[in-house]
């Protein structure tokens, strides 16, 4: 699982950013190269929101959770964006800019 640059660490009030899909989990979650979504932790729920691509397709993020990037010995450093499974839209493909 690739790592995610947690933009909220340098700007905790950021509400949007441009990112690229670097992985899709077996469960249909999306890992981005960078994110403003705070993941679940310390008893606090993870952020929710939307991902939108250049064509205007929208995916609802129900929760952001921590994941461990491959090839790392440290703590979790990937953020998995769990998508609403009720929609018929497949997750955005790897390489998609959102």
Automatic annotation (TrEMBL):
<dbReference type="GO" id="GO:0016787">
    <property type="term" value="F:hydrolase activity"/>
</dbReference>
<dbReference type="InterPro" id="IPR009000">
    <property type="entry name" value="Transl_B-barrel_sf"/>
</dbReference>
<protein>
    <submittedName>
        <fullName>Ala-tRNA(Pro) hydrolase</fullName>
    </submittedName>
</protein>
<dbReference type="InterPro" id="IPR018164">
    <property type="entry name" value="Ala-tRNA-synth_IIc_N"/>
</dbReference>
<dbReference type="GO" id="GO:0006419">
    <property type="term" value="P:alanyl-tRNA aminoacylation"/>
</dbReference>
<keyword id="KW-0378">Hydrolase</keyword>
<dbReference type="GO" id="GO:0005524">
    <property type="term" value="F:ATP binding"/>
</dbReference>
<feature type="domain" description="Alanyl-tRNA synthetase class IIc N-terminal">
    <location>
        <begin position="22"/>
        <end position="58"/>
    </location>
</feature>
<dbReference type="GO" id="GO:0004813">
    <property type="term" value="F:alanine-tRNA ligase activity"/>
</dbReference>
<dbReference type="Pfam" id="PF01411">
    <property type="entry name" value="tRNA-synt_2c"/>
</dbReference>
